[in-house]
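Duplicate of earlier report; protein acetyllysine N-acetyltransferase input re-posted below.
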Amino acid sequence: MATPTLADVAGWLSEAEHVTVLTGAGISTESGIPDFRGPQGVWTTNPGAAALFDIDTYLADADVRRQVWQLRRSHPAWTAEPNAAHRALADLSRAGRLDAVITQNIDGLHQRAGTEPDRVIEVHGTIHWVVCLSCGLRTRTPEVLERLAEESDPPCLACGGIQKADTISFGQRLRPEVLEAAVDAAERAEVFVAVGTSLTVQPVAGLCELAAENGARLVIVNAQPTPYDALAAAAFTEPIGQVVPELAAKVLAATR
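Output:
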């Protein structure tokens, strides 16, 4: 059997009524946001950095929280712009060709590219909001970052509790309602496209298998091999900024 081409995959997407996309850190690297596990990833080049993202360590150690707040202040998401892959998915979404974009990213670039916010499922949360771990108050991140000049570990203004970015750290469970939305999108997909994710973090990686078990064609776009390549109907290792826009252009041309 011939290996499916990008044109074949475009045909699948054009014919499908339900398409779901899962994105990981690899889609944002061309926007200047490093991934975590790639050759130049944050944790590849600095393995000790992973400890800063453990919820128990964060809660127990004020020095860790101070380090994390400084990292948040300098996070590249504040200056990053959506790239061609983000814009291509937004084009598909606006054309009604995508049910949902499930993203492991916290940068908000899908929404900035134009994907409708109600179609973006942020399974690992967002850097753009801060949450109090005691009372649950949510505050826009820039408002908290402005306080760093005076307070290196700014407490909640409502109750004095510990605050952190509204993201999922190691040791924290995904929000049940967010995971349920992601599962629903995977189960109804006729084509499930995983873009720029190593597919090693569960339970999100398992959405690929869930989609395939429900009859979806699984398509993987990632520079490195993933544990789900053998399950994929098609896989591409070319640059995401090349593959995704080309795929979107073919789908839109076929459905006009």
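The chain has a mean pLDDT of 93.

Merging into the original ticket.
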